[in-house]
Amino acid sequence: MGREVSESCIDSLLTEMVSTYCNRFYANKPELAARRIEAIGYQVGHQLSERYTMDRPRFSDHLEAIKFICKDFWSELFKKQIDNLKTNHRGTFVLQDNRFRWLTRMSIDQSPENGASEDTSIMADNKAVQSMHLYFPCGIIRGALSNLGIPCAVSADISNLPACSFVVRIKA
Amino acid sequence: MQFFGGSEISPSPPVPTATGNNAHMMYVFNRNGVCLLYREWNRPLHTLNPQQDHKLMFGLLFSLKSLTAKMDPTSADKGNLGVPQLPGQGCSFHSFRTNTYKLSFMETPSGIKIILVTHPRTGDLREPLKYIYNLYVEYVAKNPLYTPGTSIRCELFNTALDQYVRSIA
Amino acid sequence: MAPAAPRSGDAIFASVERVNAELFTLTYGAIVRQLLTDLEEVEEVNKQLDQMGYNIGIRLIDEFLAKSNVSRCVDFKETAEVIAKVGFKMFLGVTASVTNWDADGTCCSIVLEDNPLVDFVELPDTCQGLYYCNILSGVIRGALEMVSMKTEVTWIRDVLRGDDAYELQVKLLKQVPEEYPYKDDE
């Protein structure tokens, strides 16, 4: 068993990293903030996958590499595996985590108690901030796969929280 | 020694002193006197607008703390009336009871104040208030979408709170 | 009588949800690297790391208080001890010690021999002047400010700069009592 730190360390670091880039550095340029956050995730994913595959033979195909991400890699990070993997066999993979750890504490009040217009804007804000938090794990997956020699694009879908689906599109 | 921790909210909630629908309302203030949360379950009478109501509650606590410290016969270093204290300094009250309601109060060293107003026959709520503080930590302080110092709009917190309060009062 | 605070954070650390420290360490490293790229000036990176730490500290204080069962932080000496012994253990899984108290008890050092933030880290020459762990000083400052203590936190020793340990000096500037926030009386 390697060294561990409290989950709050990583949670609060990520919360603050997202808020630094979104609210302080690029308050009016969300696409730039997103790119930076994704880049940080990419570095982390790249390094982690390097460490976790050191003693392994090379993966024979894309599916093998994706399975590695779903099982070993995900377990190292979240102490659980990806719950469901789907593919169209043409280079697109959907990795679903039914209870994605980094989303479990995210909650906003959906009940429109006060001024309705203000509420809609707050909710839209919240949605935007919520999606900002997903660029980091997307970057991790892209970095990890890129380290395994698989260039790809990764996006996330959170239409049914706390489940989260990561869509990996491998570049031909 | 009792520790709070773990993935689930622990320790397991204290044994209910009575069950039912006896909680009237709850306030959470921060150290700057901002009302972070007001939650109401059973309050037939409203005489003030929400801002005045929060201000009155905060003022009541502030004065009462100062008075209880002033009257403390056990301590030599008492502040003057109205002189601000550090949270946790001197003595502090944890509840008072009138013939129609009971107010239970907890203040953390970080200045978070949790006030629960219940039926006058409710028992000691000090442990339940600590538990509510743990709920606040798990669902509010750790919610990445929550900005410290702003009013609490967390569905998960409200749900957990409602459920817990129903079980204790 | 207030319940006594726990003397060590071991039991709390054992009970909290924990994660792989590699993920934390590499994430922190990637953030520092990105900040160096984006901000260019090392001084500015130090400042931003401190600010990030401060914001983290004001959030973490409540978890610390709730889990450690500390019910009062009035005495600076006691508070510094409990932060070092319980706080560092509870979050980072390492123990810090408090030394070098000055005569009037308002200034001390927190010393870390083991620091998970710097596993695998080696600073290139281009990073001269960088306080790599500056986020820690911010966390301490932010957390203490929430318990009414305005402090100044500075690095005295840093292993990445060739010293034998990490040493942070914490100086109490003043204790800020609670103010009645409403001015108008109606």
TrEMBL record, chain A:
GO cellular component: cis-Golgi network; trans-Golgi network; TRAPP complex; TRAPPII protein complex
CDD domains to which the protein is assigned, alphabetical: TRAPPC6A_Trs33
Source domain of life: Eukaryota
Gene3D superfamilies referenced in this protein's UniProt entry, alphabetically: Trafficking protein particle complex subunit 3 (3.30.1380.20)
Pfam families: TRAPP
Any GO BP annotation: pollen tube development
InterPro entries per the UniProt record, alphabetical: NO_sig/Golgi_transp_ligand-bd, TRAPP_component, TRAPPC6/Trs33
Stretches assigned to coiled coil: none
Family to which the UniProt record says this protein belongs: Belongs to the TRAPP small subunits family. BET3 subfamily.
UniProt-recorded name of the protein: Trafficking protein
From TrEMBL, chain B:
Ranges in a coiled coil: none
Entry annotated with the keyword Endoplasmic reticulum: yes
Compartmental location: Endoplasmic reticulum; Golgi apparatus, cis-Golgi network
Stored InterPro entries: Longin-like_dom_sf, TRAPPC
Organism domain of life: Eukaryota
Family matches, as CDD domains: TRAPPC1_MUM2
Entry GO CC: endoplasmic reticulum; Golgi apparatus; TRAPP complex
SUPFAM superfamilies, alphabetized: SNARE-like
Keyword annotations of the record: Endoplasmic reticulum, ER-Golgi transport, Golgi apparatus, Transport
One Pfam family here: Sybindin
One GO biological process term: endoplasmic reticulum to Golgi vesicle-mediated transport
Keyword Kinase: no
Family as reported in the entry's similarity comment: Belongs to the TRAPP small subunits family. BET5 subfamily.
Subunit architecture: Part of the multisubunit transport protein particle (TRAPP) complex.
Protein name: Trafficking protein particle complex subunit
Organism: Herrania umbratica
Gene assigned in the entry: LOC110414684
From TrEMBL, chain C:
Subunit structure: Homodimer.
Sequence similarity: Belongs to the TRAPP small subunits family. BET3 subfamily.
Record protein name field: Trafficking protein particle complex subunit
Pfam families: TRAPP (PF04051)
PANTHER family: TRAFFICKING PROTEIN PARTICLE COMPLEX SUBUNIT 3
A cellular component term, taken from the record's GO annotations: endoplasmic reticulum
Species lineage: Eukaryota, Viridiplantae, Streptophyta, Embryophyta, Tracheophyta
Annotated gene: LOC110415855
Keywords: Endoplasmic reticulum, ER-Golgi transport, Golgi apparatus, Transport
Chain's role: May play a role in vesicular transport from endoplasmic reticulum to Golgi.
Subcellular location: Endoplasmic reticulum; Golgi apparatus, cis-Golgi network
BP-aspect Gene Ontology terms: Golgi vesicle transport
InterPro entries associated with the record: Bet3, NO_sig/Golgi_transp_ligand-bd, TRAPP_component
Signal peptide start and end residues: none
